[in-house]
Amino acid sequence: MTTENLAQMGAARVVKRVDAAGITVIEKAPVSKVEYAFYHQVAPELHGVEILTPALLAADPSARALTLEAIPYPVSQHNVASDAILSMLARLHRFAPDKKWHYHTHRWPEAQLELSLQLLALPREAADVLRRCQRDSDSLFAEAGLISGDSNAGNWGQRENGEFVLFDWERFSTGHPVIDLAPLIKGMGSPEEYQYLAMRYCRFNRRSENNLAREIALAKAWIVSEVITLLHDRQKADFPHFQGWYRRYLPDWLREVQKII
Length: 261
Hints:
This protein is an alpha+beta fold. The chain has nine helices and nine strands. It has one domain (72-257): Aminoglycoside phosphotransferase (APH), C-terminal lobe (Aminoglycoside 3'-phosphotransferase, Chain: A, domain 2, Alpha-Beta Complex), CATH 3.90.1200.10.
């Protein structure tokens, strides 16, 4: 199960259609202010260093609507942690932010933690580990590097020429690279998977592998809290499915990752 595609919980309506020129396009509206500004302010800058996003074909500011290039081929969870994608994310993470750009605010407040614990009804030992993750999560949001904020496999596609393209930028922000690395691992993953991904990422962006592995675990825990509370708050139909999955798998996962956090 893949649980991290947070952008799919947004309010925008997405339509795929063929335009008058016979070209398949994506229409998305109303997008967030962050995503609307991203395609106008940020995407042109990122393209200069081969951080690829869909081409902006048209925009309507009154409706906050975007017409975007349709990316024809999906990327599987198996392929989303390829070297090509890791290197593109590393270029994004090293790109200097601009204070004039619009950013989504990422954080893990205590109120969100407590609501997620109420919704998940975890055993006390597991709940204590999740509380510890929240107490140690400041490092996820303190860094100033750029992040996509939602790098799940469902937000990647490939062009006909094989180029990987990242879309759904409504959670574009600054923060720790692990916010983009954690969703590349299917489900909750394991400490061994975190260490392996950290090792591979550090070939493109030199950092402490051990610290990255630990912080991937913290990011995974935060994403759980984000997902379950957003599903609940927005009354999404698949809330019971996610709730049941988390209740089954989180206790064992939290017992495992407490060794590295």
